[in-house]
Amino acid sequence: MNHEQSFAAGMTSPSLASPGMPAALPALPISANTQPLPRLLWVDDSRMLLSLYQSVFESLGFEVLATSSPNEALQHLSSHGIDVAILDYDMPEMDGGALASLIKDQCPMLPVVLYSGNTSIPHVARRWVDAVCAKGAPRAELLATIERLSQHARQQENNRLRTFAPSSNH
């Protein structure tokens, strides 16, 4: 079974379905709060996989900006309010580690997930990302990672805003 088939199969797994959810879609690990689903920037040099990821995650309610160009991804950062970046590691133009370092230069607080089929990600690449998920792992793992990182980023932003809020004790 290739990655496209295993990814699609992961979307129909009965073990991921919950009462009230169609069997074709997994239950989201997104908490019961009223936060909107994160806006994802997804970068992968395989246009076929990129199209599959975009279609599946949009059907789950995410907004997905998908590109096969690392340079285009960098342009999206400032203008699209990205919540989580998901990067392939093995790309011909620029590897995911190098792209992650450029993303962190522009947006240090943006959560970055390296989503790769490569099992030997160099340590130097890992230092720029917040999580690494294997493309062969169950989709629930990636969904849980997106939720965990986006919640953490929201908490950090809320803490930052509270720190800089003017005091009313004058």
3D architecture notes:
By secondary structure, the chain is of the alpha/beta class. Strand 3, helix 4 and strand 4 form a beta-alpha-beta unit. The protein is globular. Helix 3 packs parallel to helix 4. It has one domain: 3-Layer(aba) Sandwich (Rossmann fold), CATH 3.40.50. The protein is built from 6 helices and 5 strands, in the order αβαβαβαβαβα. It has a 5-stranded parallel beta sheet with strand order 2-1-3-4-5, sandwiched between helices.
Could you provide a short overview of the structure?
The protein is of the alpha/beta class.
In CATH, what is the class? Answer: Alpha Beta
The Cα radius of gyration reads 17 Å
State the CATH architecture. Answer: 3-Layer(aba) Sandwich
Which oligomeric state applies?
single chain
Rounded to the nearest angstrom, the distance between the terminal CA atoms is 66 Å
Total of DSSP H or I helical runs spanning 4+ residues: 6
Strand order of the largest sheet: 2-1-3-4-5
CATH topology: Rossmann fold
CATH superfamily: Response regulator
**What characterizes the major β-sheet?**
5 strands, parallel
Low-confidence stretches: 11-32
Order of helices and strands: HEHEHEHEHEH
Broad shape: globular
- The average pLDDT value, as a whole number, equals 81
Bin the strand percentage: 5-15%
Number of domains: 1
Q: What helical percentage do the residues reach?
A: 40-55%
Number of strands: 5
Task: Supply the helix-strand structural class.
Answer: alpha/beta
